[in-house]
Design goal:
8-stranded parallel barrel; TIM Barrel
Amino acid sequence: MNAGWRMTTDIFARDFAIEATRPNANEIAQLREILKPGTSVYITSVATAAADETITAAAALRKAGLEPVIHIAARRFASADMLQGVLARLTGEAGVRQLLVIGGDVDAAGPFVDALAVIQKCDLRKAGIEGIGIGAYPEGHPRIPSGRLEASLDEKIASATAQGLQVNIVSQFSFSGEHILVWLTELRSSGIKNPVGIGLAGPTSVPALIRYARRCGVTASLRGLMSGTAAGLVGNLGPDRIIDLLASSPRELGDTHLHYFSFGGVIQTARYARDMAKAGVEQKAAAHS
């Protein structure tokens, strides 16, 4: 890999968000030391996690100078009042301003059958929410036809924008830079200009990645991973080559940043993302000196 390509990669990696599953106080303290202030840390939706646990973690992230972004899984809320109560506590006790609104791969426990229902039926702005993320799937969804995925994305963006919410897109992770590039190109060609968090799996063992890929329905690039052809893209060193491919693409990707899924652990992922970003800052400074 030549030096110019490496510089482009590292500069591309400067902006990122990471996901954390049930971060504890010790992990949040470490994240405070690793990440720059204001970095978005997404708290994933876990069925066994009580609202108190999520709110406590969000408040600790805010106190640590980081930006908590909470997954709201629509189908897990038994009532509109339940959701409004959680939102009131998130905004009031933890200063949460951003959500990632997803359907949640379970049967609906209440009135919200999908993410769009939350956006349409809840006054998120009134609750203190300023912006939302919505999910997208570069390799498709195992249970939703591609045409419905596209229409749903348009509907969510239109509904949220009409309410004055800032809207960004967060993609499911993929092991294929080629799949990501094709999907992003089609997204931009369709007229969608919203910021996109490009989903990547942080540094993780290949067996663990295979387990998560099967669970999340990432099938197209999983076949390459299982055959061994993609082992160099992931593994314990992180998704360097995928980032290389994205950074060196001549195609216009628009407003994008990296969105790391921390399957190998949030601290390991945070350190990896920080090191990639740090290299980009240093090389940009060197280029202008």
